[in-house]
Amino acid sequence: MRHILLIATLLSAVATAVGWAGDDDTEKELVGLSRRIDEAYVKADTAFLADVLADDWMAIESRGIRDKAALLKALKEGSTKFTEIRTVEVKVRVYGDAAVVTGLYFVQSLSRGREGIPFNDVGSFGRVFVRKGGMWQYVHSQSTPNVGWESGAGPPIQK
């Protein structure tokens, strides 16, 4: 345990010394971008998502792995329809031109489009961003459902 604490302390010091630690403006920018991505999912704004998602973007989800083309197609066709996405406890870690955004999420969606079956999901998420040409690109996502939270066993997700 002491070794892990020592390594974490050293990494934190090195990150600060070489500029890996994010400043408040960068953290606010990434939280805002992450929220804008959530809005784009709900609005099926595939033009925005096509710009912000890296060409090799990949998501690891409870139902499998999805790439950029599959996500955009599902949103355009309406086979995936998000009705609400809320996130809380969002944290940002910046490592130079890379960043990780994590937090808790609540998602309401329809599994087969507009007339589909309602689906609620509560869990944890991680998003990886890379700065290219001065702009943040969304390169990877992972979400993990947290079983039991829906019944009140976990932290509340509030608007």
First-last Cα distance: 38 Å
Please write the string of helix (H) and strand (E) elements.
HHHEEHEEEE
The CATH architecture can be named as: Roll
Q: What is the count of helical runs?
A: 4
Helix content: 25-40%
Notable traits:
Nuclear Transport Factor 2, Chain: A; 6 strands; 159 residues; 4 helices; 6-stranded mixed β-sheet; single chain; disordered N terminus; globular
What does this structure look like?
33% of the residues lie in helices and 42% in strands. The chain is an alpha+beta fold. Strands 2-1-6-5-4-3 form a 6-stranded mixed sheet. The model is unreliable at 1-21 (pLDDT under 50).
Please outline the helices and strands:
Elements: H1 2-17, H2 24-43, H3 46-52, E1 53-61, E2 64-67, H4 68-77, E3 81-95, E4 98-110, E5 118-132, E6 135-145
Parallel strand pairs: 1-6
Antiparallel strand pairs: 1-2, 3-4, 4-5, 5-6
